[in-house]
Amino acid sequence: MAGVSELESALQMEPAAFQALYSAEKPKLEDEHLIFFCQMGKRGLQAMQLARSLGYTGARNYAGAYREWLEKKG
Fold it and tell me: The Rhodanese domain covers which part of the protein (predicted)?
């Protein structure tokens, strides 16, 4: 998926353009589980806040970040 720096424009793309660029279906505003994460937690939180500001009310941040996920062996 996109990095935080391109997230805003990515989430505002038309679904077909998003699919063509990222080879994935564009999340829907009503999706309940749109999870963001990063290595330490800061960028994941920023991404979640940005997505919510764009109307993605189901956006969440995995607060433990990648490190926690890795420690728990996924």
Answer: 15-74
Per the annotation, the verdict on 35 as an active-site residue is no
In a domain, 9, yes or no: no
Residue type, 55: G
Domain contains 18: no
- Considering the entire predicted model, what is its pTM? 0.81
Average pLDDT score over the chain: 89
Domain assignment of residue 48, yes or no: yes
DSSP 54-73: TT-TTEEE-TTHHHHHHHTT
- The catalytic position among 7, 11, 38, 47 is 38
- In which residue ranges of the chain is pLDDT below 50? none
pLDDT the model gives residue 41: 79
